[in-house]
Amino acid sequence: MKAILTATLVLLSPALVLAQASAPSDAAKPSNKPAAKHATKHVAKKKPVVSTNRQNLKSAAMNAAAGIEAADAALTPAELAIAQRVYVGSLPCELGATVTLTADPKSPGYFDVRGKNFNYHMFPVVTSTGAVRLEDHREGAVWLQLGNKSMLMNQKLGQRMADECKSPAQATVAENMKEHPGPSLLDAPVKAGAAPAASK
Fold first, then answer.
1. Cα(142)–Cα(123) distance, rounded to whole angstroms?
2. Residue 200 has what pLDDT?
3. Do 173 and 90 share a domain, yes or no?
């Protein structure tokens, strides 16, 4: 008889353990429903206030950032005058490279300067020499436009990225410079009214 009882208990014990594990315990059940509702209502009242305050702060920060960005983006009349002299389009450069300059329709005076492995957003900078200079401060890039050629440099990397870039107008100036070179820096200055000395 003891053997039968022992065998029955052994067989039923796994079933009892499973039944206890699947049954919800009293600790898991909420003990006081009104208190739980009250806590939920309390959290619900505070949550929109915090969310509204965060939204207001975020909105104010975005407006301030947009205002600063707009102030930084605004160009002076001198810078806008320089922008009108920038050659736009696809400019062929040395070694088969090409640089494309496109005016930014959303930001007057700004240009997108693109080529293989680079894309810069540049704005004009006043220079003492009168050369056209565009810069992208964030990337450290500089586009320098002279009468006979243009070049792109990256000051952060310390390298020239494109050289001998020429628009049709610059190509004409470069050809004229080859045909009619100016006086050399090593030549003696010619006095006013005196005929140049014949070369020996």
1. 10
2. 46
3. yes
